């Protein structure tokens, strides 16, 4: 069965963005030739789900090919529909229903790239199977928290931890059944 995997970076104090959706703190650990396992991770996925704010930010900063490379389905979770473009689908339905449908289909794993609302909706329904969280060595003090209140307790199993020259530490956990 396909897995839903979260691969995301946070500040040491738990923020995925500064106020105003600012992700500039991620540049602190940019290093030529270092992708922190992203290429290897994305080789095992064929579907991406993400929130509309995250999508809009990445499209503005990097471009549409970052998500839609023509080889994977991209579901942008949004309240307001838009016309689909290429393999990018603007999805306005139930997120748990979408995950159930995707997991029942054949394919590689499903990558959740954020944002916080999508992640926390998945957590409320216990739908994230593995967590790859990269911790950036900065305390932001405010912004968008990765984990919000109001979700059930979930036990995780430690898989691995890696540290990098840049100060980034990457934690790997999977949902404990």
From TrEMBL:
Biological process terms from the Gene Ontology for this record are: riboflavin biosynthetic process
> What InterPro entries does the database record attribute to this sequence?
RibDG_C, Riboflavin_Biosynth_HTPR
Q: Which residues form a coiled coil?
A: none
Highest taxon in the source lineage: Bacteria
- GO MF annotation terms: 5-amino-6-(5-phosphoribosylamino)uracil reductase activity
Under Pfam families, the record lists: RibD_C
Domain (Bacterial bifunctional deaminase-reductase C-terminal) spans 2-167
Q: Which PANTHER family does this entry report, sorted A to Z?
A: 2,5-DIAMINO-6-RIBOSYLAMINO-4(3H)-PYRIMIDINONE 5'-PHOSPHATE REDUCTASE (PTHR38011:SF11), DIHYDROFOLATE REDUCTASE FAMILY PROTEIN (AFU_ORTHOLOGUE AFUA_8G06820) (PTHR38011)
Protein name stated in the entry: Dihydrofolate reductase
- What does the record give as the organism's lineage? Bacteria, Pseudomonadati, Bacteroidota, Cytophagia, Cytophagales
